């Protein structure tokens, strides 16, 4: 009887630990370093996000297709976590057009109010290198794309230690990124940020 009882508790403990393990976020790798100019004409680097959870995306202000949806999704995250120590970094892939003044106006038009949300512009080559080689999020200056540009609609989540993290999918594999075009994925992103900052 005692052995059966022990086996039962051992099984419960195992199931509990697996459940907890499945609920944890997976570390994908270290987020790359960067330094660019924001909408307030301030130099912002990855060091400004030290100790913060933050979300990264790549966009451009004249994009008529996925960018407005992505920005709207990011605003949902901003509003859901208002007042929390959470940051956002949106990098323009059309820095020639997207000056700090243009980015500031874009922020006003789209409800970007968080002081920790930086719309970033700067050297074009450095931005494309950051997107494609740093975060592995596709961005391309391509005449065949909309307005001459192509880019991913995905968001990267970075934890307080500067690591790119994500939850696991239904098969137990890391999602790696969150789709900025899907409401369900944005809900997941908000849940995972809350988990990271210890918010119920």
TrEMBL record:
Residues 25-191 form the Thioredoxin domain. InterPro entries: SCO1/SenC (IPR003782), Thioredoxin-like_sf (IPR036249), Thioredoxin_domain (IPR013766). Pfam families: SCO1-SenC. Keywords: Copper, Signal. SUPFAM superfamilies: Thioredoxin-like. Residues 1-21 form the signal peptide. Belongs to the SCO1/2 family. This is SCO family protein. It comes from Capnocytophaga stomatis.
């Amino acid at each position: 009887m005692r052995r059966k009882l022990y086996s039962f508790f051992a099984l419960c403990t195992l199931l509990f630990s697996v459940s907890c393990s499945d609920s944890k976020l997976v570390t994908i790798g270290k987020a790359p370093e960067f330094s660019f100019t924001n909408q307030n004409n301030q130099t912002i680097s990855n060091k400004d996000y030290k100790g913060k959870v933050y979300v990264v995306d790549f966009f451009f202000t004249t994009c008529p297709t996925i960018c407005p949806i992505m920005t709207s999704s990011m605003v949902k995250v901003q509003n859901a976590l208002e007042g929390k120590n959470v940051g956002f970094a949106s990098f323009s892939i059309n820095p020639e057009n997207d000056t700090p003044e243009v980015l500031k106006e874009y922020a006003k038009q789209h409800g970007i109010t968080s002081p920790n949300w930086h719309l970033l512009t700067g050297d074009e080559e450095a931005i494309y290198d950051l997107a494609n080689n740093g975060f592995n999020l596709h961005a391309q200056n391509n005449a065949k794309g909309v307005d001459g540009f192509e880019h991913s609609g995905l968001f990267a989540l970075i934890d307080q230690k500067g690591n790119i993290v994500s939850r696991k999918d239904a098969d137990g594999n890391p999602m790696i990124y969150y789709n900025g075009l899907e409401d369900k994925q944005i809900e997941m992103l908000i849940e995972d940020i809350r988990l990271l900052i210890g918010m119920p």
